[in-house]
Amino acid sequence: MTRECNLAGGINLGQGICDLPTPPEVLDEASKAVLADKSVYSKYEGIDELREALADKLHTHNKLDVDPDSDIVVTVGSTGAFASTIQGLFNPGDELMVFEPYYGYHLNTMRVGGVKPNFVTLEPPNWEFSAEKLEAALTPKTRGIVVNTPTNPSGKVFTREEMNTIAWFCQKHDLIAITDEIYEYILYDGREHISLASLPGMYERTVTISGFSKTFSITGWRIGYAVAPPELSEAIGLVNDLFYVCAATPLQHGVARGMARLDPSYYAEMAADYEKKRDMFCAALTEAGLTPYVPAGAYYVLADISPLGCDTAREGAMKILEEAGVASVPGSAFYQSEAGESLTRFCYAKDWDTLEAAAERLSRLGG
Ligand SMILES: Cc1ncc(COP(=O)(O)O)c(C=O)c1O
Q1: What top-level class of enzyme does the UniProt entry assign (predicted)?
Q2: Are 47 and 252 in contact (CB under 8 A)?
Q3: Which residues surround ligand 1 with Cβ inside 6 Å?
Q4: Domains in the chain, ordered, with CATH?
């Protein structure tokens, strides 16, 4: 869609690229680290300062008490953490449960590792599932479950009750949970972020993955991390070393020191800003006749495009691009079933001018 968007001179709300400004404190500390020539490889598990800062943050924000020396691996983005987890902990032929709509990288990384997905479909409008659905998707080869909260693309935030169900299910069937929490600071309407690993009996069987791409708008820096007990984190660290050696050393310093300097209000203000953007953009979608499934977190919205009368999601997304000049990602990218064919996903992590221009253009749909 990006190529088609460029050709059509459209506004690209397709890719999940967040082009908002990085906090100056983080930029300043990274620049200082580059100029101070922090240029050599770090330990494969990351610099001590960052792992210590992460342990503090995990204590206060995620309600996890972890040993920064043995339980944290700093990775090349959360994508690197997920890839290292799949390669380090699973074998070809293993199966992992995945909720759909899913994040494509999860699926493709599993495929590269020969790990088969067992899909559990979340039902709109609230993207719900039941314990029965989990049981129905389980096979004798299932070894774990992938949970992404807040979720790309649906914006779902798993409730405590749902997390309890997943925790119960994992313990009942001796499964490993992999949680992708990259949008952990972007929640709306007073919702709380719950880390699955913080529930009773879950730390020992959970790999908690997150990173700074979204929180600090530094998608190109590639700083993420995996948190798990030593029995799991050791294998993750070994793969991280083999694949990547380490995350960029000066940028690790930038993030660690930037975290220390940032005012704690930064995180809530960022979420509040996204919430205003969500409200404005969802109102524009409704106005344009494309019913949004209003997200509870993250910065994407799935919209129902059936009123456009197209046969496929791709056709629908192309129609929106041609008539309104706004690019989105066809819902089929997030589903193995037909369910995605009536959906398209917009990303609203854009500056206000761009988003307002996109909203104005959407009003031309069908005109
Ligand atoms: C669910 C999810 N996980 C991970 C990522 C990528 O994160 P990172 O830049 O830390 O690799 C994205 C980016 O779109 C995402 O949506």
Answers
A1: transferase
A2: yes
A3: 16, 77-79, 103, 148, 152, 180, 182, 211, 213, 219, 224
A4: 2-21+265-362 (3.90.1150.10), 25-261 (3.40.640.10)
